Amino acid sequence: xxxxxxxEGLGSWISSLHFSGFTVLIVxxxxxxxxxxxxxxxxxxxxxxxxxxxxxxVRLQNERVNEADAExxxxxxxxxxxxxxxxxxxYVMPGETQLSIIEDVVIPEDSTAVTSDTLTEAxxxxxxxxxxxxxVAGLSTDLPNYLPEQTADESAEAPAGAATDxxxxxxxx
Length: 173
What we know:
Structural class: mainly alpha
Number of helices: 6
Mean pLDDT: 81
Low-confidence stretches: 161-173
Strand content: under 5%
Distance between the termini: 117 Å
C-alpha cells in the first residue's frame, strides 16, 4: 500500500462516519467532565502520594521507638550493664586480674607469596650457634650495659650470639 492509497482509504472511512447530535452531545459531555474532574483527580493523586510518604515516616519512627525501647530494656538488665562496664571501661570484679593487650601486632596476610615444595639447607649450624651463645652468656663477666661494641668486621666473623672473639674461644675447647 502506498501513501496515497492509505490516505484515500482513511478519507473514505472518515466520510462514511455520520455524527448525530446525540453523539456530539455525549463527546462534549465527556470532554467537559474530564476537564471538570481533572483538578480534583490531580489533588486526589497528590494526597494519596503524601499519605503513603507519611505512612512510611510513621513506620520508620515506630522502628526507632522500638529500637530505643529494646536498648532501654537491655540497660535494665544488671548482667548487661556489668558486661558493658567490663568491655568499655575495663572494670573487673574484686579478686579478678585484668590483662590488657596494648597495640597488638597485626600480621598481614601475604597471599602473593608462593611456597616452594623443595627443601632447602640451612646456611648455619644452629646447634653450634646455640652452644656458643650459651657459653658466651654463661662465661661473660661484664655487665650487659658495659659489653664492648663490635665493629662491622668483627660481627661478620663472629658467630651469632658471641660478644667478642675471646668469649668465643672457650666454646671451641
